Amino acid sequence: MSWFGCASADGAETEDPEQMSIDQQVRDDDRKHVFHSWSTQALIDPVPVAGGEGSYFWDHDGNRYLDFSSQLVNVNIGYQHPRLVAAIQEQAGKLCTVSPNFAHESRSEAARLIAELAPGDLDVVMFTNGGAEAVEYAVRLARLHTGRPKVLAAYRSYHGGTAGAVTLTGEPRRWASEPGVPGVVHYWGPYLYRSAFHATTREEESERALAHLRDVITLEGPGTVAAVILETVVGTNGILVPPPGYLAGVREICDEFGLVMIADEVMAGFGRCGEWFAIDHWGVTPDLITFAKGVNSGYVPLGGVIISQPIADTFAERVFPGGLTYSGHPLACASAVASIGIFEDEGIVEHARALGTDVIGPALAELADKHPSVGEVRGLGVFWAIELVRDRTTREPLVPYNAAGADAAPMNEFAAACRQRGLWPFIHFNRTHVVPPCTISADEVRQGVAILDEALATADKYCA
Ligand SMILES: Cc1ncc(COP(=O)(O)O)c(C=O)c1O
Description:
Number of strands: 16
Bound molecules: pyridoxal-5'-phosphate
């Protein structure tokens, strides 16, 4: 079993003996020597990937998949964008590595470009190797800036796999690492379809979620809380788009109690929601933004924290106690610079926004009309969820929360039906997420949705 389906491609067979031997060698070495994330090692059979281009990747057998998952929702620019590949090659030819103790062209430029894109006075960037480290450093910055110990994080969230980030995480990936780091308190964020507040409208959900957050802060002791961290649009745990007024309300509460507002945009940022940063939709300026994934589509590992000027100033005359050998790695930063340039030149953010309103949203609404197993579709940009249920009235999920083994069979069947038809789906619990590269064409979206339409027949048969 695997949390993200280190998935098998349902037993396709190859005809070319040379390809078969590469495929077999990759599989054999992988099974003997590679320890995979979030997986029961003996139960997985990862597909050996041979290549990719645009919105597709393929295996050594020549099976081609339209990628509705963007790997782990990070290949925002699509596979093998030639300009991005060339930028990495060019930087590799000049200087492959330089420590964070020096200033470097690609790092300086990447930081400036990211700061220019970020809202308000978020003008300074600390680079990391990925999202979890960005979250670790955001929390450290908030604690040192405020001098307070606690951090509030939402249930139904994922913030990363390292000690602090996994403690902040509000779902089962945290459980095995408990007790985690001290000082983390969980609260409920808004999710109208399964409201923790018995709300019936988006406005009610927003109001009640804010009242709850205020209560949690009051009872924890405002003077003990450094920060509230939230995924601007919750990603893996359901594509939960905040209701009207929620983010502005969190901002107000943070201001009232002197807390740092941390927007985790590792998944939602860099075009995914049809804006550079998801939070731009709501015109709210947090104090810290964490980013990774879409900043350079994972062509080279990169993440970071965008820091507001007042928090950066805390460390003007005082040492910041933290660092990483590869903070601001030249290959990673050169790829971020190139990626931002490509996004601008090709209008990728605007394309992502239009796909959401004109193509993906309407196409998924049609699926919802047609299939009894579709409880709700929701999202924006190229960030959508289809929530599958057994009964639309009771909203009983197609599979139980955190289902494994036989309990997860209906979702596994659905995923297999997609893969057999050449679509690679993103599956989490009772949902499939429609999260292709932001560069996908409208036609490719329609092809993928047509496959989802066929595959949903496997889910419909479980409906009351
Ligand atoms: C919102 C969010 N934060 C943090 C992370 C952790 O990022 P990484 O896997 O790069 O450490 C993820 C990864 O999926 C994420 O979705």
